[in-house]
Amino acid sequence: MFNIGDYVLNQKTGNLGKVTGYGHQIINNAYIPTVKVLVDLATDSRRRGFIEEDIFTVWIPWEEAQRM
After folding, report:
1. How many other CB atoms sit within 10 Å of the CB of residue 39?
2. Sign of CA dihedral 34, 42, 18, 57
3. Confidence class of residue 1 from pLDDT cuts 50, 70 and 90?
4. Per-residue pLDDT tens digits for 17-61
5. Residues 6+ apart with CB under 8 A from 16
6. DSSP per-residue string spanning 1-67
7. Counting beta carbons within 10 angstroms of the beta carbon of residue 10, is it exposed (0 to 12), middle (13 to 18) or buried (19 or more)?
8. CA distances from 37 to 20, 28, 41, 53 (A)
9. Cα–Cα distance measured from residue 44 to residue 24, given in angstroms and rounded to the nearest whole number
10. What whole-number distance in Å separates Cα of residue 47 and Cα of residue 55?
């Protein structure tokens, strides 16, 4: 699990940001953990400062992403 303040990269969207919280989505009657991230760098626009929430497994630590 990520800590609040960790920088993470969304592997689907390519957005980079700082973890601000946690949540969940209900998929097939199961609670799936999510991570809420304040986006610093969005790949598809110049927008920044918005919250992106996605399932936990989509996010990777920024340090790990730099090694790829």
Report:
1. 19
2. positive
3. confident
4. 999 999 999 989 999 999 999 999 888 777 778 999 999 999 999
5. 7, 8, 9, 10, 39, 40, 41, 62, 65
6. -PPTT-EEEETTT--EEEEEEEEEEEETTEEEEEEEEEEEE-SSSS--S-EEEEEGGGEEEHHHHHT
7. buried
8. 5, 24, 11, 6
9. 25
10. 21
**Residues in CB range of 20: below 8 A, 6 or more apart:** 4, 36, 37, 38, 51
What's the half-sphere exposure (Cβ side, CA atoms, 13 Å) at 33?
A: 8
Structure token digits, residue 20: 């601000």
